[in-house]
Amino acid sequence: MNCYWKEEKAKYKKMFKQPKHILDNAMRMAIEQDKKNNPDYAKRNWLILKLRKEGNSFQKIGDMLGITKNRVREIEVLCLRKMYKNVSKLNQRSQNA
Q1: What pTM was computed for the model?
Q2: Rounded to an integer, what distance in angstroms lies between the CA atom of residue 30 and that of residue 88?
Q3: Cβ distance 90 to 79 under 8 Å?
Q4: For the segment 26-46, what is each residue's pLDDT rounded down to a tens digit?
Q5: Given 23, 40, 58, 73, which is the most exposed site by the fewest CB atoms within 10 A?
């Protein structure tokens, strides 16, 4: 695991310490954005994140969905990045209000 990924993983751990309503809103915003941009994959991508949060392995999820475990890992990172971006937006809005 390279240094960049360790830093990014620490950033996401901090994100999950946010209040639940902020995380829920951030995920909802990201899902809506995905539905507009890529409706075919939006449901699958967020299902992967949900399954990972439940403790399923990359391999198990990949087998369920018919994709490689490496692709599952890539999709998880994409979803986390989108959520992180939206959490930052929501925090800025609440500070400006």
Answers
A1: 0.77
A2: 12
A3: no
A4: 888 888 888 888 888 888 888
A5: 40
